[in-house]
Design goal:
- By secondary structure, the protein is α+β, with helices and mostly antiparallel strands.
- It folds into 6 domains: 31 residues; 116 residues, no CATH class; 133 residues, Chitinase A, domain 3, CATH 3.10.50; 104 residues, Chitinase A, domain 3 (Roll); 100 residues, no CATH class; 105 residues, Roll (Chitinase A, domain 3), CATH 3.10.50.40.
- 42% of the residues lie in helices and 23% in strands.
- The protein has 23 helices and 27 strands.
- The strands form 9 sheets. It has a 4-stranded antiparallel beta sheet with strand order 22-3-26-25. Strands 16-5-20-19 form a 4-stranded antiparallel beta sheet, sandwiched between helices.
- Helix 9 packs across helix 19.
- The two termini are 55 Å apart.
């Protein structure tokens, strides 16, 4: 009792301590997750200029997309739906600003004009029935509580029409603002038709060795800072990885082979009912039912089949085709499986045949033409009648086929060409391959009744009837443990390395780099889908040099983080592949320019040891220089000079540094009407207006993306 009293006295203190501990735990959690506070709530997946993208709608559309595009992974659907809904949000903001809306009368009109609706509600006379549609819509609304899915589908259909109409109105407004002037039409006319003749001297960039040009990291950084709009990037991660596959060892394979060998001969087994507790169990060699025996010990359901040599595995075909009835071959390995095969029978028969047929189909037969109304009994009577006629007049078989057959080969006189036994249904093949050349017969198949004529048979060849015990080759527990230990050891060593590639090579593994993995991707090249890796890469505390091991069904993946790029300006390393060639060309241009010295075109080209030539009839529309390709800046310079003048300063082109001397300029004669050129400009600009407008709106919009809170 004394102890109980002490506890009661201290209970208030204990409760207080527990409350403080809980409070501290909650506060700690809030601090840890403070980065997510103020960034939307659990019902919002994102915001576009303050317009919320509801999470429930987003998830419904993701689920629908995955259902419709079955080859889409979840993250592919997430990314596609995100882009769609952001596009819709920026456009809806514009619709609201401009007061664009679609009234109920227009919605009704859009529904009735929809091609799918027109087709679905056509009466027996082939005319669209507006009353049938109205009845259908009434039924949907009256039963919306009993059939909410149907109602939701209809509303989605209506909404899609409304959104499409709003977009059309908006884009038509934008396109209406594209009004090129007559002067612009005149400019395009001369751009396409004026021509210039000029001399040129060119020194290709390739004449300066790369070894004379040094581009540093600072050069690249300075360049991208000078042109930041060109070198923006989304956040991404880069890795190197090693994949250690989980594969069966030779020991695993040998164990399966030994087990299969043990099945061949009869063996003595324990039987408690036998007088001496022993009995003989027949093996594969002597079993009374080899098919049942094979299926008892096989990992894959087996059937006995006939094989000609061309159908046997290439590696073993020569051996298998020579075997006799009762022979056993194997064990042998093929495509991650081990086989033990028994020859059940042999025969000599044709492996291909040529035949013609007249098909008499009936309503309900496989692939029957929907216009066929005769029943099976009527089809049988007709086939019997034709069979008797054809038997008496076999020379006219092709003519009868063209007139009477329901099959697609009727235009060819029923000719099916050459085929193998497995290409035709069993009933058809059995008749042809067991018959004689010239024989005519009546055969029933799921397609109908066939009057068949055997036109030819290939030279008979040996075939074997074979059944196999097939065992899948899988890693043993021992192999799994060994592979796991190897992967764990390598991952541990990788934790302390600064050169993952060198370490991998020293251990005999192939290290593979992967650049720019996005947050919402789910595939790794060479590995396939592995969302776990990407989720790990985007954890808040991830840093360059981190290592992790991921276990998959096919093996173990050891991942090493080589780069973390935040959204914004590219790093010099990432920009290098884009910027370095530009800077190399610029530095080579400066070296070449210094060689163009002199007061005349001839002096400059001579001192620079330039390649000289003459370009004639060159238009700005196609600014090609013979031997160098497209050089618009060079051709524009030639147009800008007066005949007889030359460029005092060398020109940096695409392939070389040039000087030019204009010989003559042919100005196309003015025309009375430049409207065709005005329309041409308008048409060209209108082509890309939708894509460009949406892109511009998205670039300008403030977009908040909360997907990372819900998709890890």
């Amino acid at each position: 009792m004394a102890i109980l009293g002490q506890i009661q006295k201290r209970s208030g203190i204990l409760i207080g301590l527990i409350a403080l501990a809980l409070f501290a735990f909650i506060i700690q959690g809030l601090i840890k997750n403070s980065s997510s506070l103020g960034k939307g709530d659990v019902n919002v997946i994102g915001e576009v200029d303050g317009r919320e993208i509801p999470r429930d709608e987003f998830q419904k559309r993701v689920a629908l997309m995955q259902k419709q595009a079955r080859n889409f992974s979840q993250m592919q659907a997430v990314n596609t739906v995100w882009n769609q809904m952001v596009d819709e949000a920026v456009l809806n903001n514009e619709y609201e600003k401009l007061g664009i809306d679609v009234g109920q009368d227009r919605v009704r009109e859009l529904v009735m004009k929809n091609p799918s609706i027109q087709q679905a509600f056509t009466n027996q006379q082939g005319v669209f029935d507006e009353n049938r549609l109205a009845d259908y819509i009434d039924q949907i609304y009256q039963n919306k509580d009993r059939n909410p899915e149907v109602f939701a589908q209809w509303k989605n259909f209506e909404n899609s029409l409304i959104e499409a109409e709003k977009k059309k109105i908006y884009m038509d407004l934008v396109k209406s603002s594209i009004n090129p002037t007559i002067k612009e039409g005149e400019w395009l006319y001369h751009f396409e038709n004026d021509a210039v003749d000029f001399k040129y001297g060119a020194v290709p960039y390739t004449t300066v060795p790369d070894s004379l040009v040094n581009v540093t990291k600072d050069d690249i950084l300075a360049y991208i800072k000078k042109h930041p709009e060109k070198y923006q990037t989304e956040e991404n991660r880069s890795i190197e990885y090693v994949f250690i596959p989980l594969e069966p060892s030779e020991k695993d394979k040998q164990k399966i082979k030994d087990e299969l060998k043990n099945l061949i001969e009869d063996k003595e087994v324990y039987d408690e009912k036998a007088p001496d507790h022993k009995k003989i169990e027949k093996g594969f060699k002597n079993t009374d039912d080899p098919v049942a025996f094979a299926n008892k010990y096989s990992d894959v359901k087996q059937q006995a089949r006939w094989y000609f040599k061309y159908k046997l595995p290439v590696k073993y075909a020569d051996t298998l085709i020579k075997l006799n009835k009762g022979d056993i071959f194997g064990p042998y390995e093929m495509k991650k499986q081990i086989y033990l095969s028994k020859i059940l029978d042999t025969k000599v028969a044709p492996d291909s045949a040529k035949a013609s047929h007249i098909l008499i189909a009936y309503k309900g037969a496989m692939r029957a033409n929907p216009d066929i109304t005769r029943d099976k009994e009527a089809a049988k009577k007709k086939a019997d009648s034709i069979y008797k006629i054809v038997k008496r007049n076999s020379g006219k078989f092709a003519d009868y086929a063209k007139k009477l057959s329901d099959g697609p080969t009727k235009t060819k006189g029923g000719d099916l060409g050459w085929f193998t036994q497995e290409q035709m249904v069993k009933e058809f093949s059995d008749f042809v391959f067991n018959g004689q050349k010239g024989q005519i017969g009546l055969v029933e198949t799921p397609f109908g009744f066939h009057i068949v004529k055997i036109d030819d048979l290939s030279k008979p060849k040996k075939a074997v009837k074979m059944i196999s015990i097939v065992r899948n080759v899988v890693p043993s527990t021992e192999t799994e443990n060994e592979t796991f230990a190897k992967a764990a050891k390598f991952a541990s060593e990788a934790l302390n390395t600064k050169d993952f590639y060198a370490l991998s090579k020293s251990k005999g593994y192939e290290s593979k780099p992967v650049k720019k993995i996005g947050r919402y991707e789910d595939r790794i090249p060479g590995v396939g889908q592995n969302r776990n890796v990407i989720s790990w890469l985007y954890e808040d505390d991830r840093k360059v040099g981190d290592v992790a091991k991921f276990d998959t069904e096919k093996g173990h993946l050891i991942v090493y983080v080589t780069g973390i790029q935040k959204k914004g300006l590219m790093s010099p390393e990432d920009a290098s592949v884009l910027v370095k060639p530009v800077l190399i060309k610029q530095k080579k241009a400066e070296i070449i320019k210094a060689k163009f010295k002199g007061n005349t075109f001839e002096e400059m080209t001579k001192n620079a040891k330039a390649r000289t030539g003459t370009a004639t009839g060159v238009r700005m529309k196609n600014p090609y220089i013979p031997g160098f390709g497209k050089e618009p800046v060079v051709v524009a310079t030639a147009f800008a000079l007066k005949p007889g003048d030359f460029s005092k300063q060398p020109i940096e082109g695409n392939k070389a540094v040039y000087v030019v001397k204009t010989i003559k300029i042919d100005i196309a004669p003015d025309i009375k009407n430049y409207l065709p050129y005005v329309e041409k400009i308008k048409k060209e600009k209108s082509k890309s207006v939708e894509r460009e407008v949406v892109k511009a709106l998205k670039d300008k919009a403030e977009i908040e993306d909360y997907r990372n809170k819900f998709y890890k």
